[in-house]
């Protein structure tokens, strides 16, 4: 009795699925022990290591992926990771590897599908799916960064109010920042604590404040940092700066809320026209149309 042989397309699909699943699992799940990972992330967060130790740890699939990825893409991922707060589960090396692995998976599956049903549309769909899969980790990271920026923007006015009260009570600016960082629980409090840690490690205050604005990439926070730096350079009272900035942030938050409220009627028009009005017309005009049809049929 002869055993039926697999077709080349099925064999290629099976090999592609097996190798891609193994590569994806290794790239996303392989990591050292939890204690080593936590200690290393705390020491080198935001720092690109170029030492022999860093090169040794970057070998394997992560090193190969970084070598195959353009430097501009790696730099863009690094900026997006900084904006997203550098999540410990999403280091840049793992993101680079995930981009290539997902693209390889999508490309292989698209090639198998195209060989089964050859055609221009099939090839186009395979290319589009491959490109989308390549940018999926980047899109997820960007989405998380935008959510973090919105949270910082919402917390900024209240945090400045706390710092204003603390400064007017006699505390210094950095002490007020430390108190706001300890009392807060959101991403802005984490960034304030990170800035104070940078200053305590010897980084100049101006550089630490500018790094805060660059990491978060929030326009209102950047404006506040520049106001603080100007006040420090020209000897302006920091309490007055905090009071003015707090009032301005609250005013802008109210204006943004009013802007969203004014946009709401325009956004409601399309669901209203497409979903609600047809059902309303059916309910209201349906009986009248049926009566008119019965009248003409008699």
Per DSSP, the total helix count is 12
What proportion of the residues is helical, as a percent range? over 70%
Cα-to-Cα separation, first versus last residue: 75 Å
Radius of gyration, in angstroms, nearest whole number? 28 Å
Write a brief caption for the model.
The chain has 298 residues and is mostly helical.
Describe the fold and architecture:
By secondary structure, the protein is mainly α. Helices cover 83% and strands 0% of the residues. The chain is built from twelve helices and no strands. Helix 7 (120-168) packs across helix 12 and helix 8 (173-183) packs across helix 9. The protein starts with 7 loop residues before the first helix and ends with a helix. Mean pLDDT is 80; it is low at 1-6 and 49-59.
Write the layout of secondary structure elements.
Layout: H1 8-29, H2 34-44, H3 52-57, H4 61-68, H5 71-83, H6 92-116, H7 120-168, H8 173-183, H9 187-200, H10 205-216, H11 219-234, H12 238-297
Q: Keyphrases for this structure?
A:
mainly alpha; disordered N terminus; 298 residues; single chain
């Amino acid at each position: 009795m002869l055993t039926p042989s697999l077709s080349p397309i099925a064999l290629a699909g099976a090999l592609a699925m097996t190798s891609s699943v193994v590569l994806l699992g290794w790239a996303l799940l392989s990591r050292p022990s939890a204690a080593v990972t936590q200690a290393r992330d705390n020491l080198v967060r935001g720092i690109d290591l170029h030492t022999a130790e860093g090169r040794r740890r970057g070998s394997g699939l992560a090193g190969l992926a970084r070598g195959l990825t353009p430097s501009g893409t790696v730099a863009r991922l690094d900026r997006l990771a900084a904006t997203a707060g550098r999540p410990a589960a999403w280091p840049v090396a793992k993101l680079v590897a995930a981009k290539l692995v997902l693209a390889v998976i999508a490309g292989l599956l698209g090639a198998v599908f195209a060989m089964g049903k050859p055609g221009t549309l099939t090839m186009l769909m395979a290319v589009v799916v491959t490109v989308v899969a390549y940018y999926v980790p980047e899109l997820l990271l960007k989405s998380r960064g935008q959510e973090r920026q919105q949270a910082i923007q919402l917390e900024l006015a209240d945090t400045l109010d706390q710092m204003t009260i603390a400064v007017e009570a006699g505390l210094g600016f950095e002490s007020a920042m430390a108190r706001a960082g300890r009392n807060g629980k959101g991403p802005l409090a984490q960034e304030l604590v990170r800035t104070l840690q940078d200053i305590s490690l010897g980084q100049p205050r101006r550089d630490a404040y500018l790094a805060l604005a660059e990491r978060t990439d929030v326009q209102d926070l950047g404006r506040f940092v520049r106001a603080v730096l100007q006040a420090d350079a020209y000897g302006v009272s920091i309490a007055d700066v905090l009071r003015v900035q707090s009032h301005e942030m609250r005013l802008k938050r109210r204006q943004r809320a009013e802007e969203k409220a004014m946009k709401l009627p325009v956004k409601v028009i399309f669901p209203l026209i497409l979903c609600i009005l047809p059902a309303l017309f059916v309910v209201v005009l349906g009986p009248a149309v049926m009566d008119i049809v019965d009248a003409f049929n008699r």
